[in-house]
Amino acid sequence: MRVTGPPRLGNGTRVVVVIGLGLALGLWTAATQGISVAAEYYAAYFLEKMLSVDNIFVFLQRLRDVDRAGGACQSRAARARLLAA
Predict the structure, then answer these.
(1) Best CA proximity match to 48, nearest among 69, 22, 28
(2) What spatial distance separates the first Cα and last Cα of the chain, rounded to whole Å?
(3) Cα distance between residue 32 and residue 38, in whole Å
(4) Is residue 76 part of a domain?
(5) Is residue 42 within 8 Å of 26, Cβ to Cβ?
(6) Domain for residue 79, yes or no?
(7) Is the confidence at residue 84, as pLDDT, over 80?
């Protein structure tokens, strides 16, 4: 008999759950702390989400720049770009 662990969530499901929890926390904040506090929470929450997506694009841009470097410079450029990101 094979023993398995709990079912694993796929990446898409995990993203939906985490974002749903963040939005639910905003609703709870509105109910307990008031609308103005909830508005501040949502503003910070959405700003953080936008900045994290922006960071992904910057990271991908840096990787693309490394791919353009030729020959012996490529490994040095790769290390420098990844450390800078």
Answers:
(1) 22
(2) 47
(3) 9
(4) yes
(5) yes
(6) yes
(7) no
Distance CA 35, CA 24 (A): 14
Number of domain units in the chain: 1
Per-residue tokens: 53: 């997506």
What tens digit of pLDDT does each residue of 8-35 get? 767 788 888 989 999 999 999 999 999 9
The model's pTM: 0.59
d(CA 1, CA 72): 54
* Amino acid at site 77: A
3-state helix, strand, coil in the chain (%, to 5): 80, 0, 20
Please tell me the distance from the alpha carbon of residue 72 to that of residue 74, in angstroms, as a whole number: 6
DSSP type of residue 72:
T
Amino acid at 65: D
CB-based contact 78:64 (threshold 8 Å)? no
